[in-house]
């Protein structure tokens, strides 16, 4: 059986380990031994890290894909920025325009 390593999971793991070490939380202690506030805070910070990693992955993917279209002159610079970072597509691409 071949296992594929997904770079998003590696990045999330590294960021989670960094967050844990930054707040001084030992990784060899079971989580149920910590106070409920710390558990909720760590869950929230890991969730935010997950959302940040997803956003960065989507931005990089759009930047690469639509960067090629920008270099070929198929879209303008403003359209490229709006698509890559804001997720706003040009009106001419939408149905009815």
From TrEMBL:
<keyword id="KW-1133">Transmembrane helix</keyword>
<feature type="transmembrane region" description="Helical">
    <location>
        <begin position="9"/>
        <end position="26"/>
    </location>
</feature>
<keyword id="KW-0812">Transmembrane</keyword>
<feature type="transmembrane region" description="Helical">
    <location>
        <begin position="38"/>
        <end position="68"/>
    </location>
</feature>
<keyword id="KW-0472">Membrane</keyword>
<protein>
    <submittedName>
        <fullName>Uncharacterized protein</fullName>
    </submittedName>
</protein>
């Amino acid at each position: 059986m071949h296992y594929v390593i997904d770079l998003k999971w590696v990045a999330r793991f590294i960021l989670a380990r960094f967050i844990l070490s930054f707040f001084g939380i030992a990784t060899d202690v079971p989580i149920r031994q910590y106070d409920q506030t710390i558990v909720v805070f760590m869950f929230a910070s890991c969730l935010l890290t997950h959302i940040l990693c997803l956003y960065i992955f989507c931005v990089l993917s759009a930047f690469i894909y639509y960067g090629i279209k920008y270099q070929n002159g198929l879209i303008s610079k403003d359209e490229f920025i709006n698509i890559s970072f804001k997720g706003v597509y040009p009106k001419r691409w939408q149905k009815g325009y």
